[in-house]
Amino acid sequence: MAKKDKKVLPPSGAGLVRYFEEETRGPKLTPEQVVIMTVILAALCIALRYSYS
Hints:
By secondary structure, the chain is mostly helical. The protein has one helix at residues 31-51.
């Protein structure tokens, strides 16, 4: 019998980084805090835009 050359596929997670395992320094924000800060920033920008006209 002839030997068949088996083709080896790379592992499914090769080259991917798992960011949820890495601990970073900095503020920890919840999604609600990000949304609130975005709304406040948008309101401030709109207020500044129309305050000079």
